Amino acid sequence: MTTQLNKSKGENMGLPTLNDYLILEKIGTGSYATVHRAVRKGGNREVVAIKCVDSTILSKSAIDNLLTEINLLQILKHNNIVEMKDFFWHEGRIYIVMEYCDGGDLSSFIKRKSQLPETICRKFLQQLALALRYLRSHDVCHLDLKPQNLLLTRKPVLTLKVGDFGFAQYLSTSESKFTMCGSPLYMAPEILLRREYDARVDLWSVGVIMYECLFGKAPYSSSSLEELVEKIKSCKTIEIPKGCSVSPECKNLLMSLLKHDPNERLSFDDFFAHEFLDLAHAPTEENHEKAIALIQSAVKADTEGDIEEAFHLYSEALRYFIPQLTNEADHDRRKHLRVRVNEYINRAEKLKAMCMAGNSGKLESSGRKELLQGTSFGYQELRILSKSTTDMASALEMGEVGEQYLAEGNYDLALEKLRACLGILVPLINKEPPGRRRELLNQQIEIWLTQAESIKGLLATRAVDDSPKESKHLQDQCVLQ
Ligand code: ADP
Ligand code: MG
Questions:
Q1: Which one is catalytic: 86, 105, 144, 202?
Q2: Whole domain around residue 191: which residue ranges?
Q3: Cβ(103) to ligand 1 under 6 A?
Q4: 468 within domain boundaries
Q5: SS3 of the chain: helix, strand, coil, percent, to 5
Q6: Number of folded domains in the chain?
Q7: Within-domain flag for 479
Q8: pTM, two decimal places
Q9: Ligand 1 mutation target, pool 35, 48, 112, most atoms within 8 A of CB
Q10: How many CA atoms lie within 13 A of 87 on its CB side?
Q11: Which numbered ligand comes closest to the C-alpha of 28?
């Protein structure tokens, strides 16, 4: 980072100085700084947070960290990163003026709630992932991710913002450094054990934060640094605390992040693409556009009588609409969206019933095969051709069971069976030699993949099924006292 800070800024240039702010109560103390709530005098009396560091007691490297923080914050602009509004020096102190986060930090939020439900944990992690994706696009790693450095704002909706860039680095300069920075409890084993490290240390910290959100304490919570280092050195297995249960996707993400060896740890790309986060359907402006386009295509397919396609399109649109609905803070807009979403849910359910019609619980019925398994003869042929390959035959059977559950509206089991079946068929097709069987298998995999996606849409609607009750429950959990 070459940008030089103008030390005289604020002192000589007539730009903001301490006198422009009314300093209010202290809201935080960190390793170097104290943070106060403050109000900008005159004008709109904007409420801000001011981080104050006494530069006279800081070492050169600590001052460098602070300057990096200021330089970075000047460049980084993202909804999930604390915005820096200004900075200035005053009588040996450095002041950073930031947007004020009225929900405090994630650490106090977790303490108040003891532990967070998976839905809230997902919401926070999604936002953290969006910030990290943005940081990566600017080649920045944070190096001190921990709940104390993740701030919350309450309005218009509960939003997490990454703060405290005091240790953040550009990737090129952080690669293979041996300096210790950050907080031991959240520090990746490779830093703690003084090995080479790179940006992947942030992913370990995300794992620890996720663990703490879910279970109220860090996986290696210890009473001393020695004890912590000992646990890390011995690669002590990380376990889900007794009596706590989490969904398989949640557990998978947690355990893939908390891998001691950075080469075994989930990569950034796999993290951003992870099923538990479902970033692809996060409530962003861009995804709202996508949802609307999907609905338009669904309506078109519906009018043209392509019920299978319409069912799939409605279900896919719901995967975008549900997170938007649960995230909508404005009462009227929320009400309006709910009415529309309910219409889409009803239509998707009706279309599903129409797709399944003719099946009436009988797996071999050809009517259903026409609709759901492409050409029924094709599927029957595949069944016959697969008889000699036990794995394939039993996977196909599993797929049929999945479809049966889908018809009955048992979406959890339907998804489980289709996933298990695809988990066998997809690797099998890679080994399958070209020919009729490969062609048929390909078709069937396509059909079941589409169905599995549609089921996810129907499952997502659960969050609003008994809308008023469920969403109130969610809101309650998000309200900060
Ligand atoms: P340090 O570099 O000393 O750790 P931080 O930037 O992390 O300083 O700030 C210390 C604490 O102050 C945070 O953990 C948080 O509780 C509070 N804090 C920091 N910035 C803000 C802000 N913008 N809004 C509200 N609280 C803040
Ligand atoms: Mg801090």
A1: 144
A2: 106-277
A3: no
A4: no
A5: 55, 10, 35
A6: 4
A7: no
A8: 0.80
A9: 35
A10: 21
A11: 1
Atom of ligand 1 nearest to the CA of 28: 12
Residue 459 CA, chain-centre distance (Å), reads: 18
DSSP-H helix ranges across 28-141:
60-75, 106-113, 118-137
Would the CB of 27 count as within 6 Å of ligand 1? Answer: yes
What number of other Cβ atoms are within 10 A of residue 387's Cβ? 9
Nearest CA residue ID for atom 4, ligand 1: 30
- H helices of 216-247, where? 225-233
Decide if 329 contacts 155 (C-beta within 8 A): yes
Residue where a domain terminates, one of 258, 277, 296: 277
Would residue 16 count as lying in a domain?
A: yes
* Residue 9 CA, ligand 2 centroid: distance in Å: 25
Quick: pLDDT tens for 389-448: 999 999 999 999 999 999 888 999 999 999 999 999 999 999 999 999 999 999 999 999
Buried b (16+ CB within 10 A) or exposed e, 183-194: bbbbbbbbbbee
Q: Quick check: is 144 catalytic?
A: yes
Nearest 5 degrees, angle CA 42-CA 48-CA 54? 110
CATH of the domain at 410: 1.20.58.80
In a domain, 308, yes or no: yes
Question: Ligand 1: which of 51, 63, 70 to mutate, most ligand atoms within 8 Å of CB?
Answer: 51
Same domain? For 192 and 255 the reply is: yes
Query: For ligand 1, is residue 341 a contact (CB within 6 Å)?
Result: no
CATH at 55: 3.30.200.20
Is the CB of 32 inside a 6 Å radius of any atom of ligand 1? yes
The whole-angstrom separation of Cα 106 and Cα 82 is: 13
For residue 136, report the distance from its CA to the centre of ligand 1, in Å. 22
Whether residues 134 and 242 fall in one domain: yes
Average pLDDT of the residues of the chain: 85
338, two tokens: 């709910």
Residue 480 has pLDDT above 50, yes or no: no
Cα-to-centroid distance, 182 and ligand 1 (Å): 14
Hey, whose CA ends up nearest to atom 8 of ligand 1?
A: 30
